[in-house]
Every structure is written in C-alpha cells, then in structure tokens.
Design goal:
It is a single chain. This protein has one domain: NAD(P)-binding Rossmann-like Domain (Rossmann fold). 43% of the residues are buried. The model has no long low-confidence stretch (mean pLDDT 91). The two termini are 33 Å apart. With 300 residues, it is of the alpha/beta class.
Length: 300
C-alpha cells in the first residue's frame, strides 16, 4: 500500500454532514490515512412541494431521502470516524453568511491548532433557468423525480455564488495566509467542482458558480505555488449521495462508459491523491472523476 504521507495532517472539509455524501466520504478517507479531520456542516431545511413528497420515498434515494440526510448534524459521520480510531471535530455554520466563513478556521484551530489541508466541498444547489415561468409548463423537473426548475432571480444567483464561489475564495485566502505566516511551505487545497461547469441548461447558476470556483483555483495555484501550496480541482459526474432515484440512475448510466453511477468514495480517492505526497508536483489541475460521463457525446 502506498503511504500518502497524511498521518497527523489536519484537514478541514466543508459540507460533511450527509452520511451518504461526498464530504463524509472524504473525511473518512483522509482519517483512514491518519489525518485529523474537522468537518464543517450546515443543516439544510427540506423544502419539498406536495408533488415532490408524493413521488419521493423517504427510505430510498431521491429528494426526500437526500434532504433527510442533509438535515442531520455531523454526529453520525463523526461517530464512524471515531469508531475507526480517527480524530475528528466539527462545527455548523451557514457559509452564505460572511461571518461564518471568517469564523470557520478559528473553530478548526481551537480543535487541532492548525490546518494543513482545505477541501471545499460544501455547495448550494437550486435548479434555475433563463426561461420565464410562463414557458416552463408542467414539466419543469431536471428529471422525473428531480427538483423543480425556476426562473433565475437575484436570490437564486446570490445564494449559489455566496457558497460555491465567494466562500471558496475567502477560505483559500485565509488558508494561504496561515500557511505563509507559519512558514510551513506545505499545504493542499482541493476544490470540488461539477462536470458541465462551463454551462448546463436548467442548472445555470449552480454550474456558473462552479466555473467561477475553477477559475479561482487556477489563479490560486499560480500565486500560492511558490509557498509550497498546491491547488487542484476534482470534478465529479453523477454521484449517488442519496439524491438520485433508481430510475434516474438507469437513465444516467447510458452516458457513462464505465456503466455505473459514481460513489462518494470515488471522489474521496481522488482527493486523497491530491492531498498526498505523491501529488507534490501537481497543481492547477482539474481531474474529471465521472466514469467517462458524456465523453461518448464528444463534449470533452
């Protein structure tokens, strides 16, 4: 087994309370390799229409199940890490609020003293579109049992960019300042994007805010490299974190050459690599982890 050199490193992961989610898988994977992990989370209230509640089962993957997981604290994820012998802490805060972005590192440092690895995984997602409501009609879901799409407005734009772009950029800046002040000359930033970040109909603000994240990441890689900080991006395809109904899985697999939906552990493995000593001379890179999603359509 290759030693990634992560023992006793401190990792801060945002968005890690969903036990079936990517953030939780990243926290567990880093802890397995000896890192101390600090999990940020924010309990999102479930906002489902009566129609959504009727067609989604609380016990099976789908919106109702997913929102149930998102409404949990990080206790379940933390318990799984502690049961495996890992060191873990957590803090809850809404990253749409600038004050919480500034407080996050303070909370992590109270627990572990410093942070060596920053994983920006937390994300805001609402399906929105440029089309007016009058043109959307009855069929406004991204898929049959998916979230309804609404016309973009100031609120949908701002909440996406607050979490997916602004919080990411400020956290990177705060992380870099701390590493440089300590003269550590070792740091890792891994940002989680999404495939189709350059643009996707009916999910316009989510994808655009992730594209901004990618631009910030490349600029950070260039500026922070001289200080020993690498910055890389993992771009997942469809990953089953509890939100994809089984019939939607079947439809999505047709565009995936490896013929399965992604697992959170697939993304976590890529994050561990970018955090590792084996990736010490890799920075400014975007790695698609998507089973070849859409590759056969000639979009790559």
């Amino acid at each position: 087994m290759i030693d990634p050199g992560l023992k006793d490193k401190v990792a801060l992961i945002t968005g890690g309370n969903n036990p079936f989610g990517i953030g939780a898988a990243i926290a567990r994977a880093l802890a397995t390799h000896g890192a101390k992990v600090f999990i940020h989370y924010f309990r999102m209230p479930a906002e489902l229409s009566d129609k959504d509640k009727k067609i989604n089962d609380v016990q099976k993957p789908g919106l109702t199940f997913f929102f149930k997981q998102q409404a949990k604290t990080a206790d379940e994820v933390m318990a799984s890490i502690r049961d495996a012998g890992g060191s873990v802490g957590s803090w809850e805060g809404d990253l749409r609020e600038a004050e919480n972005v500034h407080r996050l590192f303070e909370q992590a440092e109270k627990t572990f003293g410093h942070v060596d690895i920053l994983v920006n995984n937390a994300a805001e997602y609402t399906a929105d579109t440029f089309l007016p409501d009058s043109t959307l009609g009855e069929k406004t879901e991204v898929w049959e049992k998916g979230p309804a799409t609404t016309t973009i407005d100031e609120a949908s734009h701002d909440r996406h960019f607050a979490v997916n772009s602004r919080a990411v950029s400020i956290l990177m800046s705060k992380f870099a300042g701390r590493i440089i002040e300590r003269q550590k000359r070792w740091g890792r930033i891994i940002n989680i994007s999404a495939d189709c970040a350059w643009g996707a109909p009916m999910e316009i603000s989510y994808r655009a805010s992730k594209y901004a994240l990618e631009s910030y990441s490349r600029s950070a890689a260039a500026e922070l490299g001289p200080y020993g900080i690498t910055v890389n991006i993992v771009s997942p395809g469809p990953v089953q974190s509890g939100y994809i109904p089984s019939d939607a899985e079947d439809a999505l697999v047709t565009d995936i050459p490896l013929k399965r939906i992604g697992r959170p552990e697939d993304i976590a493995n890529a994050v561990v690599f970018f955090a590792s000593e084996q990736a010490a001379w890799i920075t400014g890179q975007l790695l698609f982890v998507h089973g070849g999603h859409r590759m056969t359509l000639g979009l790559w």
